[in-house]
Design goal:
The complex is a heterodimer of chains A (about 180) and B (about 120). Chain A has about 180 residues and is an alpha+beta fold. Chain A has a single domain (about 5-175), classed as Histidine kinase-like ATPase, C-terminal domain (Heat Shock Protein 90), CATH 3.30.565. Chain A contains six helices and six strands. In chain A, strands 3-4-2-1-5-6 form a six-stranded mixed sheet. In chain A, helix 1 packs antiparallel against helix 3 (about 70-80), helix 1 (about 5-15) runs parallel beside helix 4 (about 115-125) and helix 4 packs antiparallel against helix 6 (about 160-175). In chain B, strand 3 (about 80-85) and strand 4 form a beta hairpin. Chain B has a four-stranded mixed sheet. The N and C termini of chain B lie far apart (about 45 Å). Chain B is of the alpha+beta class and about 120 residues long. Chain B has one domain (about 25-120): Glutaredoxin (3-Layer(aba) Sandwich), CATH 3.40.30.10. The chains are: A alpha+beta (about 180), B alpha+beta (about 120). The interface of A and B includes residues 162, 166 and 173 of A.
Chain lengths: ~180, ~120
């Protein structure tokens, strides 16, 4: 993965597969503290204590198509390489929260990258799931909540071409970060 | 700067078009592999490029969607195109640059871009 936003997209797919109806993603960064905290929280099916232990093992996966599952282990590795930390909390029937802290002054810290397209992909590909994205960089904050958008749109799905185009531009223009598209 | 106010106007326009568009009735499905392997290989820009291109051309009967690992990770990013009554076409080692041509030649005009398919790809 070349940027953290790709890890976030990948890990959020687990929440989609867990049958979540609400996925909350936040990227909170403090320049002074050199810390970036990434949280992906869902209200999906959750995991047992044993599964939580196993999920950071690259040779564990719940799917049956093949024997490896690299998404969570890669994300954990990326945070720990910077001297940060990683934790998963989960409860069956309640949901799962994945949190990774990155030390942004580490030479091994990847850039956050294009979060706009990560959120855009998630929202347009999973029209029935609600997403809340909270991005904070020091005192600046941007919050994107699909529940507000759903209220305006009613029955019109997010992947309707004209709506999708609008959402991508909206996310790009309101982003508090500079990234290449 | 775009605001959510503008969405209200767009909604009316989208509703008009929706009568002639139905995901279930889509005659073409473009499916992008978005598992760890696909994402790491660059599937996200490919997916957004397809979404943009389909919107730009206002293709009403085309659905863009994602799937998990297709099982040929060494060929990622992989895109599968399903058209009613035709055999599935698998495009491999995709990039955003290849998208416009696939949409123009295959999706719109029905001619498979053979050189981007798995059959043309050297191992």
């Amino acid at each position: 993965m070349q940027e953290l936003s790709l890890n976030i997209l990948d890990v959020a797919q687990n929440s989609v597969r867990a049958g979540a109806t609400l996925i909350e993603i936040s990227t909170l960064e403090s320049t002074a503290d050199h810390r970036l905290t990434v949280t992906i929280a869902d209200n999906g099916c959750g995991m047992t204590e044993q599964q939580v232990q196993q999920v950071t093992d690259p040779f564990f996966t719940s799917r049956t198509t093949r024997k490896v599952g690299l998404g969570v282990p890669l994300f954990k590795m990326m945070s720990e390489l910077t001297g940060g930390s990683f934790q998963i909390t989960s409860q069956v029937g309640q949901g799962t929260t994945v949190q990774a802290v990155f030390c942004t002054d580490s030479i091994d810290c990847l850039p956050l990258g294009n979060m706009t397209d990560t959120i855009f992909s998630l929202v347009t590909m999973n029209c029935t799931i609600d997403f809340v994205y909270r991005d904070r960089l020091d005192e600046r904050e941007f919050v994107f909540d699909t529940r507000e958008i759903r209220e305006i749109l009613g029955e019109v799905p997010f992947n309707t071409p004209e709506i999708a185009t609008f959402l991508r531009e909206y996310l790009q223009e309101n982003s508090i970060r500079i990234h290449d598209n | 700067m775009k605001t959510l106010e503008e969405l209200k106007a767009l909604k009316a326009k989208a509703l008009q078009n929706m009568g002639i568009r139905d995901d279930q009735a889509a005659t073409t499905r473009i499916v992008v592999g978005m598992a760890t392997c696909g994402i790491a290989a660059g599937a996200r820009p490919v997916l957004t490029a397809f979404t943009e291109e389909v919107a730009k051309r206002q293709l009403q009967d085309v659905a863009v969607s994602q799937t998990g690992c297709i099982g040929i990770c060494q060929y990622e990013p992989v895109v599968e195109v399903f058209r009613t009554g035709e055999e599935k076409v698998t495009y491999v080692k995709m990039t955003a640059d290849k998208v416009a041509r696939i949409v123009a030649e295959h999706i719109v005009n029905g001619n498979v871009v053979t050189e981007y398919t798995i059959g043309a790809c050297t191992k």
